[in-house]
Amino acid sequence: MDSVTHGLLLAAGAGTRMGMPKALVRDDDGRPWLASSVQVLLEGGCDQVSVVLGASADEAEWLLADGLLDLARVHVVRSLAWQAGMGASLRAGLRALADVEASAALVHLVDLPDVPAAVIGRVVATTGAAPDVLARASYDGRPGHPVLLGRDHWEPVFEAALGDRGARGYLAAQDTVLVECGDLATGVDVDER
Fold it and tell me: pTM of this prediction?
């Protein structure tokens, strides 16, 4: 299999601290975070992107279609158990990628609006998108997102992704490559407006 990176954007949560689903939040210019995040993944080097939606999925899907020019490379996945936390959304996304021809999935979160395409590109370029790769962006030494999961890791991450911790425990127990990106972004998730 050629080295192909598939973006996996997690955007299913209700955003209770935000007061609305983060998939529905718009930046100061009125552009949906959802569309901006997908564009960052595509511009950063992902061949295609799967977006995992849950809370207010119909409205979020409409915002996505309204805010993107390249919909042919974007696929929507609905997490039916999104209320169970990020782990359920990650599991839904990985399940949807089972038949996708990709050597790695780059997992990103919709609530990281300051992460530019340069971060995506750096993570992928530093380690490559081989099936055995396991890497993540770090910001001044603090591990964050995006996370690059080679296909060999999809099944163990699927099994480990429970509750709101996602793949955190799995990544901590592995030899995960940290790719410093603190010069490009803060990597801090936005929880309130």
Answer: 0.94
